Amino acid sequence: MSVLKSVTMAARLEASVLKSKFKGCLLGALIGDCTGSPYEGDTITHGDKLIIQRYYDKLEDPSFTAPFKSYTDDTAMTKSVAKFLTDKPEPDYKFLARLFVNEYFKEPRRGYGEGVVEVFHKLKNSKFADIYKPASEQFLGAGSFGNGGAMRVAPIALYFYDNYKAMLEVATNATRLTHTHFLGVHGALLQAVAIDLALKFNQNVKINPERFCAELFRRIRKIERIDEDTDEIDERDYSRKAYQEKLKVVEYLLGKKHDDELDEEVILTLGNGISAYESVPTAIYCFLKSLQEIPSIQTDNIFRRTIQYAVTLGGDTDTIASMAGAIAGAYLGEEAVNPYLAKHCEFSKEIAEMAENLYAAKVKP
């Protein structure tokens, strides 16, 4: 079945299936965040991969007991985005800015980056007079190109599953509160598009990774071209086609045989850093790669395999695993999430309730 035909199936998804996908997506984002955060910044060796395998085996063991794996700023900000959508009939970006700031000052030790903390302080001190000004002033006016917009965009992709144009618009405006560089904004849009596309596949329909990647390429090309036309940039500014080039690399890597050397190539060519450019395509690759067996990861569960593989790449493990988990959860639904794995993650019951509330706010009886 082609990607485009599968997209038309969204309208025919049963209500229970759609709700399951909402919950699977936000649980995937949470679980990737919580289970990935202990490995953040690490360079993963072959021996580490064996340890990570045992780590996830234990988390899925019903008899295993341990303290909650804490969530980071990824989930803290995703919570705010979900509340922003459920509490206001129409998008109110000043309300979202206040939610971000309030969440930060309530629990500032969730791993927020220095740049976004500076934005939050300026927003609070200015009493939210111009909600986009603090972010636009960062990095000598260039703005941040980090993955902070992409890591929290999942609720927007879910809520606007039936209105693609609105999804892109709201995702753009919500991202610009903290990240105004086009690479940061386009990264958030690519992540939203990936979730949107995965959501619209019935779980019983097998995704063709190459076709999925081709459809992402078609959509991000339109987004990057729109930006080019708006800014009237020089044709030699290839960075404006950055995500198109990255998706070409994703497709190339998907065709290669898996081994430890391939993982190194993934890190070198796609990246595992904190910029959107070095993490969003990587998260998408992790999901698509995990649709097939990976010799170094012993599980038949695509959802777990996606998150575990993202963690084994090292670097910004919590965010990349969170984004990959969101895509996998949107495709597979809540049924693919091991309840014992979810149980070990802080806020798992609450995030599932937030997903239900998001669904209820969107799909009114």
The Cα radius of gyration reads 19 Å
CATH topology: the name is: ADP-ribosylglycohydrolase fold
Number of domains: 1
Biggest beta-sheet profile: none
Label the CATH architecture.
Orthogonal Bundle
Fourth-level CATH superfamily:
ADP-ribosylation/Crystallin J1
Residue ranges: pLDDT <50 for 5 or more in a row?
Answer: 1-8, 231-236
Fraction of residues in β-strands: under 5%
Order of helices and strands: HHHHHHHHHHHHHHHHHH
- Tally of DSSP β-strands: 0
Give the overall shape, derived from the CA principal axes. globular
The total count of helices amounts to: 18
Q: State the distance separating the first and last CA atoms.
A: 31 Å
Mean pLDDT: 93
Q: Report helical residue fraction.
A: 55-70%
The CATH class designation is Mainly Alpha
Class per helix and strand makeup? mainly alpha
